[in-house]
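for the record, two folds in this file. i put them one after another cuz i was lazy. first one right below, seq on top, structure tokens after. the second one comes after a little note so u can tell where it starts
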Amino acid sequence: MAGHMGIGKLMDYQFNNYTVDEWREKAEQALKGKTVESLCSSTYEEIVLKPLYSADDKKNPGFAGKPDYRRGIYQNGYQEKPWRIAQKIVAISPEELREKLKDAAANGQTAIALEVGPEFTAAHGEVIGHFAKSHPFAIKTTTGIDSVLEKLEKKAGQGVLSGYIAFDPILLYEKEVNHEDWAESIKTAAVREPVLRTVMVDTGVYHVRGANAVQELAAAAATGVSYIESLLDAGMDIDDIVDKFVFNFQIGSEFFMEVAKLRAARIIWDKIAEVYGASEVKRKMVIAAETSKFTLTLFDSHVNLLRTGNEAFAAVLGGVQYLHVDTYDSLTGATPFSERIARNIQLILKEEAHLDKVADPAGGSWFIEELTEQLAEKAWELFCKIDHHGGMVASLQSGWIQTEIERTLNNRLIDSKNRKRSIIGTNVYANLAEETPKGMPVLNIPIPTRLSVPFEELRIKAKELETAGVNTEFGLICLGDIRDHKPRADFVEGFLSPGGIRTVRSGAMFTVEDALTFIEEKGIPNFCICSSNELYEEVGLEIASQLKKKHPDINLYLAGQPGNSQEWEAAGIHDFIHAKSNCYQFINSILNGLEVPGNAQ
């Protein structure tokens, strides 16, 4: 009986309601003197993220399926119309294409997705046209759509194509695309295929150059306006024009930012279409998304599975209509296995995670709603600046927008090089037991199109030195007991591994003689003393000085950042390895200092 009374009391228990001020007080107690504001962080979009969002940040997001469409373009979300699994098919011959399409369609693919160029033949068109009545298309072209439509219609007939077949002509601005001719081709295609979308705004080229979400959104808006103007000049009606648009976004690894990016995109497009007089039902933005190529890594490629899964999750929560997930090994050449796994990521999100059962699952989150609002406002501001510079084409031709994006890229690179931004398996937790990937992409390009390229170049450089007979090992002089030296020895090992440099540790050392023996046995040029601050103060300076006197030709480093750095430098320490060191610059300097046998000056 007493037990039942206890359960009754437990069931009647009510949690206390605490105010933000009370939370702040408790948080600052835990922070031991620091303020809550010290937990704020700034994004590449210059948005300040707070550690806590509350009802004070509440926005009125409206309803799904209603303007401004931030919550999605369908009232019941994906229950009304599921997102299309649009894995891009890569095939050379029509026969290979036929087999891959049949396999994909039988295993969950719901849109015929591929990229086509001048090599697209009538035979390819016949193969794809066979699927026209059962699957929408998700086809990105590198040329005009007229010839593609002609080849498809020979098999499928006119008026039956759905989905999108499109390209973004602004991306070919260097070739001086004639927008009048392009607009006429869109107008003609609208008569032949009234349901098909043929106007693409593709922000992927900006994404892989390091653009932030604000820059991607502003570029999308400015490009969209440019195309509206061209099609209006061609005599098309505004409702017919916006009905032809599809926006292509790449989805990066910053989960919440990417969800908010897609929601903000719909807000901006709704406003633009409204200004031009489009009817409410036509102002719905159709989004084709693909996981980011900028975040893919060459080494430890299986980690790409986790990246693309995270990015696909963000895309679905953001409310896309078409989705392609890159294979984890796409940089070196996909296999049937990796293609199947990439497709299954989407199927898991749909059939196991049931993300198609809830309309706008991110809606109402104080954090995401606030982030969406700030992105939309900042992107609109940048969109107005692009317009001030003459529009998207003029901004590209003058180089102004590229300069803006390059500034963001440089910030990203700085953060990755000093490991403020982690790239798992590349600049942190690198796996040196991994074989160098075969069929590697070109790396030594002027502007990285992936964030991991600088560290990949270091890894390859280290491998080339090893192949040439250079011992790239880095000696760790472990001073004192294991509890004294292990934390910093572990740190140095993790610090050097992103550049392909292996460390070799001494045993626990207590005397200068022990350290000298280790140096002489290894016969390598670089050594780092690792120990605790206490031992550094007691014997560190003397040991460093003695080692450098006996072996003036070695490069001697210290793990940590002592306050008396000048004294250490006077004792022979070349540099210090610590959390604030620029990892990339340090490793690059080490590798540049290693000589290939026979090339010594």
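(here's the note) second protein begins now
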Amino acid sequence: MKVPTVSVLYATVALLIFPAPARSAIEKVVGGGSIHQGETRRITVIGDGMDFATSVASSDARIGVRLLSKKGLAQGRAKGQIVLEVAVPVDIPKNQDFNLTVKIAPNLYYSTGGSETVRLNVQEYPNSSWRPLFHFAPSWGWMNDPNGLVYVNGTYHLYYQAIPFSRDHNGQQINWGHAVSKDLVHWSGRRDAMFSPSMDLLPSSDDQNQVWSPFSGSAVTVSGEAARQFPCVCSNLCVASIFTKNTPAIALQDQWLAASCNGGESFKAPESVLPNVTPPKPDFRDPKVFSYKGRWIMVLAVGDKAELYESANLRQWKLLSSVEIYSSLTTNGPFVETPDLIELPVSNSRTNETKWVLTYSEGFLPPVLCQGLRDSTGMPLTDPKPKQECERSRKFTSRSFYIVGEFDGKQFKPESQPRPLDFGSDFFAPQTWSNTPGRRILAGWQNNWHYAHQVPTTPWRGQLSIPRDLGLMRDDGTYWLTQTPVPELAVLRNSALGRVTRLRDKPLTNRTPMELQNFRSTAFDADLVIDVAGLSKVNSEIKIHLRSGNTGQGMVLAWRRTGSDKGELSLTRSASEAGGATSELIKPESGFIGQWVSASLPLAAPTMQGLSSGFRKAQPNERSYITRVPVVARGTNNSILKLRILVDRSSVEVFAGDGRAVLSSLFFPNPSNKEFKIYATGGNAKIVSLVIYPFSDY
């Protein structure tokens, strides 16, 4: 090929005036070394000429690697960084080395180019006895709120707040993690769907002002002509994600939109669709968007209330109304988080009656953040008063509620008091999947901000609750939300048919029936029906020990009679059932059903310390929550109690009262504890039927 004379001349002059250094372009590589099966990691390469041609290759084709970003660190200089993402499948053999080769093309001004080989060694995936068997948990790193739940072409997409390279939520940049499933039971991890550069790699204040995190949000599908227009510009189907863009350096939260043309696998660069007001509101976040009569409706958390917006195109939004949730707003809480607005048919209505349900979470500033409060310049606060105010947030806990009412397209009019979505200690920030015709499926983060940073699992922290089908029923003039484990869980039951334990018409005394004394499983699903007619009116209980064993860990599920046809269901992680001591302080909450009970022995020492090696220096948080919820016995003579009990390796979910009462809780039992014990006190009862499907080996 003939080279133009003028190009050669310019190149010769450039070399004479700006001779290229004799050294390689690459100065520093961060992120090499050991990497675990199933881990996703970022590797950063820093050096000169990073804005020029760059390539990266893996010596093993099974290792996923891609270039995430390439930018200069400061204006007017060629010094910069590239960020790579490496994904190691779970089935890659352990103790295997592979190399990543990064090449930088030479350029006339700054460097001769160069290459660097990064060696990584695949380590065995750390096996944990608490790794959930049928709940989703990331293979590596931190997880909290589920985001962007959407069903696309036969696939359920789960996005979630994620820090893939750390188990701690300690101010690092949040990403949107991503997993997919065909049946809501078996999940496959994907690469992060949304991310932003890490702040510690951007030294200038101008760069740091551009650092943001995709906070919580939702996703919808757009098809037809609308998918071919802005903001999608897709040939067929578009997945539009609407989320809160949080820019911490300037304390700003706005709503942004990112579109995907490949079914939600990855998203284009986002654009602003709903900016914050001036002066900006501090809690302006968590948009949930849904289609309503040819328009788009957004329900947004704004301080102590939820605001409703409408749009014709997902880009321009108009405020419709607001729903007051709390009477006043303080710096430490409570405030509204992760709202959702759902229309549900009334199951036992003779007409086609529907009602709307507003769900939301009670937000507060977690105590773990109180010591890290900073001023507007980013410096730690010296005034102790803000920290003292923050510490008052200990009176709150992570819980979610629902309100039944009417929605006319502009306003939501409440018709009930707030009621807990889940009476357990570990259920927060729930969201429903969009684009699921004929059903509404909900799932939440199974954790609690009061001790989320102390949960002893590794190499991950955080998991998703069991997805639940939502319903609505009317009873005694009141509408009740119902939750039922998704029927897709039958695939697990079917796999356990050869080992099912069945009891029918079995007397229940103060001793566990002989048929259960040999039951051993770390994860199982149980249907239980008990006739409590033989229990006395006072001081009588049904107690069920779930993996309690002889060492004191585990969970105790109890139903205590409080009247002729009334009872109180509780789920307790307490050593009192194993001869230990615990004090219970009952604190009724005004306006809510049930009682929230504080206990001194939750996930803290010595329970956690005795279960987790290397975790003995953790500072226990003494505030945990046990819950008691009214559950009425029904059926003949108002004496029939029905329970659905799902036990995974580190969690329990109990469904009662035809789905009106749900209790979810984490626990971390000894791996050897595999028992299911049940007995009665204060009289005799009868097991009408009990079917237990073990999902793990005896």
